[in-house]
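*** Query protein ***
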Amino acid sequence: MTLHIEDQHFTAPAALATLEGVAAILTEHGFDVELLDDMTDARARVRELIPVGASVFTSASETLRLSGIEADINDGDRYDPIKPRIVAMDRQTEMDGIRRLMSTPDFVVGSVHAVTQDGSLLIASASGSQLPGMAGGAAHAIWVVGAQKVVRDLSAGLRRVEEHCLPLETARAQRAYGHPSAITRLLILKREPYVGRSTVLLLREAVGF
């Protein structure tokens, strides 16, 4: 019996034909989409897409961490990385500056928690800090998306966020910060109205949550 995508515990990578269909729909919705083999290809492509000297905010993402993209951006001297700057700023006296830096960089780079077969991207957040840039504040957005994040529809996407991603992120947050995570905000991107703003790098392998 052929299983529906959402019946596979949200971990099995979608078939190539499914990925190609999702790429086509996302393209119709205004996103620039590239279907890549793996994290190595995504890492190289992100480097090509972001010009030297651009300001870049990396959202919290296991996909970025595992691929090395997070370190490439935040630990090198090729770009103007936002995250190291805001980490050094005072949360009591400089929050306005922190919010502005995160919300309006040249590029925001991250991942999504689900992508539906009818062309919607779902991004959940506990703090909401990465969402303004992704929603439209950043001049450009790049999402690196593992093949296991494809779901049939919005209902399955919400289930993936709550039943699969949240427990994994809570475990990570407990280790890192000593407290659980939560879904306090959810961004759903259905179309990209600005030509050339948003790029989805859709991988043929499973990576991240």
Remarks:
- DSSP finds eight helices and ten strands in the chain.
- The helical segments are 16-28, 39-49, 62-67, 69-74, 82-87, 95-103, 131-137, 154-177.
